[in-house]
């Protein structure tokens, strides 16, 4: 199956064009029961016109898969170490599954172990969805969600959310009330917070590109008030907000290494122009003082594809999403801590973000455009989602 939306060859494939075209998509079902009757959208010829398909997106193992699942590709020898330099090999009975469908643009998954559920954003539909792992039940957690994008969880089990139309980062308290963590810097509104991570000291690190104010599909169109597209840190005690990195074109996904000595930040500036980056940068990190330094490019993406979301496992390997470009690259990539590509998980849709979940933190949940996918792995996700 191909991505549900493509463009003619003479048009650039970037987020803005994708947003314009995707505004014409019909809504699909929002529950798993309705998913069996949902209609997918497919391109008609090379004109860019769209027509509904009678073929629904099926749940369960992906079509054409057999054990061992060909969607799981190792770029190393099968019998390699499970250490940080070895590919996290998949057992023969592990397979990629589509566990939920019916969304316009799935993003920002986070796993809550206490309830055994995944929360993730459906940005254009202005809602946060909840997928229950124990019985596969899908429900709406919050609507409206202020066009939420990235989500994470803090050390007290509270939801941290980046909101496009709210232009803010919020925390959902245990009683359900919402606290604003950050919505301004130097007296001016943030652009559109995208993704966040919480360090062990409680500090919140988040990215602030302009995607959510570029139109009305993923937020509310507005002029940016912050001249630069920054990475920010919120102090856990004072609540003060300060810029920690200010030289990104479009900062996007963000993650910490398990030992918190490295900070990974994705730059998706390629969406703004062909000469801009499509890569992951890594910084030396001193969490105690909240400072970064000695940065370098950790991994380049094969343009026109970009990576959007990023997570680490307990051995420090880096897992990132891939999409928006070559359909053969759609899915997930896994890198060693040194930046060597170990393997890929192929998904039949553009992938935006991912997170580890499950009772053993060994199930990778993948947000792929209109659907939520999952696959068991031979590794465990780091405790910093």
TrEMBL record:
Substrate binds at residue 194. GO terms for molecular function: hydrolase activity; metal ion binding. The active site is at 308 (proton donor/acceptor). InterPro entries: 6-blade_b-propeller_TolB-like, SGL, SMP-30, SMP-30/CGR1_Lactonase, TAT_signal. Pfam families: SGL. Binds 1 divalent metal cation per subunit. Its cofactor is Zn(2+). Residues 105-367 form the SMP-30/Gluconolactonase/LRE-like region domain. Keywords: Hydrolase, Metal-binding, Zinc. A divalent metal cation binds at residues 107, 252, 308. SUPFAM superfamilies: Calcium-dependent phosphotriesterase (SSF63829). The keyword Hydrolase applies. PANTHER family: LACTONASE DRP35 (PTHR47572:SF4), LIPOPROTEIN-RELATED (PTHR47572). This is Gluconolactonase.
